[in-house]
Design brief:
By secondary structure, the chain is α/β, with parallel strands linked by helices. The protein is about 35% helix and about 25% strand. Its cofactor is Mn(2+).
Length: about 400
């Protein structure tokens, strides 16, 4: 991606903003590399103000106590808009049902976006603490409450210094990241029109607090989901010859689906097919009329995702037919067949390394291994250059990455 010096500087400074909670995005009066290298240190200290940190923590706790699922984030959105109103930051609302898009700066190019997702998960919070979820069956188990508070903190600092900005920062508060494809919906509504680059982060606890991680190129896999109903004919378990057993057919389907990766995929092209749902029957002595199975498929290449999707359908229908059953399959592929892979822009990754190294020290910047998880941030990256990175939050040296992982209570 070719950039002007002004755009290059703004990109570097937007990255500073997103690296340790909110850090200011400025255009330096100096265009030298030395001038740029001093900015991270200056604004790292600036962002550590106690009143700012306390304000952000308070917002995060409010959101954590009141989690909302995808496209239901009305109260979260209301809180965001209230804080933007107090800061005097203009915004568009509603965008994609509950989304909010704010603007800080000159209102002129270059435009650079920062994204925070807002939605919670349908999980019961089991940890008993003062600010636990007040909504039964829902909790922020993936850090989106922290993402929103960080972006509001960034907005606050930006507004305090907006006269020094040489461009416009677009604040993207996005709904429905957890499977709802909120990024695609916002993209279709023109959120990134005229935007030249986008940044996103995710909190994680793979590495010690105070470190960050990312990589150039493929970072996260693309993914799709499937749900299949295998229908036979129910009957008594004592006389199976008078039934057509969908449980047997579904069992064969599950075993056969594993062959798609082990025997059809290139071992160097990472792919995963997982069946995570199997529902059928309600009594120990009755063969049911139908069984429902569901799962996910993942790969780093779009061509591999298309191949997996086609073969999953063939295998399910074929194995069902072998056992005299019928199968219907729903890939939930509207408006898109799957989430694309997350691919970080090479030039923006270089900015990440330079700015993060200046700010935290090179020993605090880690190379991130590709993961088979997926993120709808990838939709933005298909449209414009973007980078996603992790903000590490591991509190103890003895804390295993397997303990209290994301999406658990």
């Amino acid at each position: 991606m070719k950039t002007s010096m002004g755009f290059s500087k703004l990109v570097s400074l937007v990255l500073i903003l997103h690296l340790l909670n909110p850090i200011v995005v400025f255009s330096s009066s100096s265009s030298s590399s030395n001038g740029l290298s001093e900015i991270p240190k200056k604004f790292l200290n600036f962002a550590k103000r106690k009143e700012l940190v306390d304000w952000m923590v308070g917002i995060r706790r409010k959101i954590h106590e009141n989690p909302e699922l995808g496209y239901e984030e009305f109260e979260t959105s209301k809180l965001i808009r209230s804080e933007l109103d107090k800061l005097g930051i203009p915004y568009n609302y509603p965008v994609s049902v509950t989304g909010v898009v704010g603007f800080v700066g000159t209102g002129k190019p270059p435009f650079v976006a920062i994204r925070a997702d807002m939605d919670a998960l349908p999980i019961q919070e089991e940890v008993d603490w003062e600010h636990k979820s007040k909504i039964p069956g829902k909790m922020h188990a993936c850090g989106h409450d922290a993402h929103v508070s960080m972006l509001l903190g960034a907005a606050k600092i930006l507004k305090e210094h907006f006269e020094e900005l040489k461009g416009t920062v677009v604040l993207v508060f996005q709904p429905a990241e957890e499977g709802g494809g909120g990024a695609k919906k916002m993209l279709d509504e023109g959120v990134l029109n005229n935007v030249e680059a986008i940044f996103g982060l995710h909190v994680t606890h793979e590495n010690p607090i105070g470190t960050v991680a990312s990589k150039s190129g493929s970072l996260l896999a693309g993914s799709g989901i499937f749900n299949a109903v295998i229908s036979g004919r129910g009957g008594h378990a004592a006389i199976p010859q008078h039934s057509i057993d969908p449980i047997l057919a579904a069992s064969n389907v599950i075993v056969s689906l594993q062959h798609l990766v082990s025997r059809e995929a290139d071992p160097l092209d990472s792919q995963v097919v997982t069946v995570a749902k199997f529902q059928g029957g309600s009594a120990f002595n009755v063969i049911p009329d139908s069984v429902t199975i569901g799962g996910t498929f993942r790969a780093f290449l779009k061509a591999s995702l298309v191949q997996l999707k086609n073969r999953i359908e063939e295998v399910i229908k074929g194995q069902a037919a072998v056992q005299r059953c019928n199968a219907t399959i729903d890939f939930h592929d509207k408006p898109v067949p799957f989430f694309p892979p997350t691919v970080n822009d090479k030039d923006l990754h270089e900015h990440f390394l330079n700015v993060a190294g200046d700010m935290l020290g090179n020993d605090k910047v880690n190379d991130m291994k590709p993961l088979m998880g997926s993120e709808d941030f990838a939709f933005y990256q298909e449209a414009i250059p973007g980078i996603s990175f992790s903000l590490e939050c591991k509190m103890r040296a003895d804390q295993s990455s397997a303990q209290s992982t994301r999406h658990t209570s």
